Amino acid sequence: MDKVILRPHREESLLRYHPWVFSGAIAQVVGHPAEGDLVSVVSSEGQLLACGHYQIGSIAVRILSFDEDPTQADFWLRMLSRAYQLRLSCGLAASADTNCYRLVHGEGDGLPGLIIDYYDGVAVLQAHSVGMFRAKNAIADALRELYGDALKAVYDKSSGTAPFKAGLELVDGYLYKRADFTAEEQSVLENGHRFLVNWGEGQKTGFFLDQRENRFRVGQLSRGRNVLNLFCYTGGFSIYALAGGATHVDSVDSSQRAMDMVDRNVALNGFPAEQHTSYCADAIDFVKQAPDGAYDLIIVDPPAFAKHRGALKNALRAYQRLNAAAIAKVAPGGFVFTFSCSQVVDKEAFALAVFSAAAQTGRSVRILDRLNQPADHSVNIFHPEGEYLKGLLLYVE
Ligand code: SAH
To answer: Which ligand 1 atom is at minimum distance from the Cα of 339?
Structure first.
């Protein structure tokens, strides 16, 4: 294994289990590691600290192990089993009314660069690093051992995320498929509600598992309310709102494919079509054109407006404009559930953008709750960068 030697005093973050080594911390690379190779990381005094995937870029090593040897044959199975145990302890795996969850959340599960979402037997793997991309077949084998016959397929959805240089075409596809499994989509259960997931054609791995608990909250507050679900994707919040007793739900997304799925999900859960309306439209235009007070619960869950620090300022302005429109339109005594999934927009910055939005409307607004990502999207305490989903539940008078 090639070796990365750190500059003096640059071992501290690793001693605290932070899972990245930045290129600026490196004094010397011994050998000629290729991108994705395993390298050991040693302090300037020669102490072996950790071992991880090497990559050219500002994050030079993503740590896989502080104490174990990742070259051992059962490494992946042990790591996936740990991740599974956590989901089991949280009541997610082996639950009667939820059969989809995130099995691996990158750094949160000690596996930087790897996402695995589990949809009732279909594991969708997304590599965000060269090392994880190269390890995908070994990971698929470990998934087969972990789940046994329950595993129907392992699908690799890394073409949009694996950081290979331009020119190299990556193609998504199955790493494993049980002989009797031919479906390209299937319905999963989340808190007893059914959702169609299409891992090949859908966004991300097919479904936004990170909103499970926030959807539940929406369901609890929907009785007798006219609900607007902005940026609805396949209608997660809409189904919970209908199940929670909403009088009517309007769902809006700019993707026609997503809207077709919303209609199918409404039917799949047995709600009458007249209780729900789908709009393929721009969410900001839609809410601006809505009559004042038409909705008494509005959900605002846009895609990440800032994908990197450079986009932060514009993103905060966009959050402010969008939230001002929603807060202005909601009926007196109404709720607004508002979210940001931009990792670079932290809780405080987001709250400030929503504060400015509220001030702009001149309405009285209270924060009833602060919302987060759920337990299967866990955050390594030494890697706060893993916290990305934040939201506020507002009460508007
Ligand atoms: N709330 C969803 C996830 C939202 S993801 C859920 O619970 O599953 C963000 C969604 O915003 C995507 O479906 C994307 O198609 C949609 N989107 C992006 N820009 C948009 C715009 N300007 N207007 C409406 N929808 C948009």
So the answer is: 1
